[in-house]
Amino acid sequence: MALAMATMAGFCGTCHAVLEGSLHLSGSSSLLSMPKTNRFAFAEPGLRVRAQQQTSAETETGRRAMLGFLLLGWPQGKIIVAGIPGLISEKSDSQGLIRAAAKLRISGLVLLPVDVTKLPLINVEDHPNLPTEVQAFMDQILLADAILFSAPEYNYSVTPITKNAIDWLSQRPETLAGKTAAIISTGWDFGGGRMQYHLRQIGVRPDLHFINTPEVFVSTTVDAQHPPKFDANGDLIDDNVRAQLQQLLVSLRDFTLPLKYGNKTVKDSGILT
């Protein structure tokens, strides 16, 4: 199946994909229009395609359809995980862990980083109608089966970026309700553990289902006995943390599969074949 590059308002990744909406040929201005009645179309072998978001006057449903209904490895599918960082700096440990997670090769799962830098501070009174940036963010999360939260601990709690993202998503309950989630945190002593427990409390109202194990706390203490785990650009350089991150995502995949496919096991779903 053709490789596709889906870039949807900050939700991006290279994958085996089926896209609903409009597709542009790479290096060409030719437009492929897919029939509305044929939800899933397959590109010819070897054809590289790129999703294009249209901004013409469409209905809300049509606009979201143009984002592309990302189904990886159709017809068997993959678990799509949205990676939400708790800080906006690209050099932050939070962003670095999301990048590291996106590079991992895990059978039956793909992680797509989500851009939270354009989200305004929530104030429902000032935004009776959802801002365009928030609508795009919600559309991205709707495409996902699960969420990976990556954030440091701020004053024994979550960061304002994390809370702001969840509060916006809660304005449209179906974006989070029933989704599975996992957390990886950073902190100087407990590795951000207190943030994780507070985030689990916050997730009760929007009906998020967090995995219980493994718990991954990344200590950012640096001294003679503890070398740095991230480089100057915020990229993960610690193989032990990378292995823990892989185990976390495998656990998230296995927890999500029965919810997505009923009571089927990983083997029965065919997702790993």
From TrEMBL:
CC terms in the record's Gene Ontology section: cytosol
Molecular functions (GO terms): FMN binding; NAD(P)H dehydrogenase (quinone) activity
Top EC group: oxidoreductase
Domain NADPH-dependent FMN reductase-like, chain residue ranges per copy: 81-220
SUPFAM superfamilies: Flavoproteins
Secretion signal span: 1-17
Keywords, comma-separated and alphabetical: Signal
Enzyme Commission (EC) number: 1.6.5.2
Enzymatic reactions: a quinone + NADH + H(+) = a quinol + NAD(+); a quinone + NADPH + H(+) = a quinol + NADP(+)
Pfam family, one: FMN_red
Protein's name according to its UniProt entry: NAD(P)H dehydrogenase (quinone)
Organism of origin: Sesamum angustifolium
Top-level taxonomy: Eukaryota, Viridiplantae, Streptophyta, Embryophyta, Tracheophyta
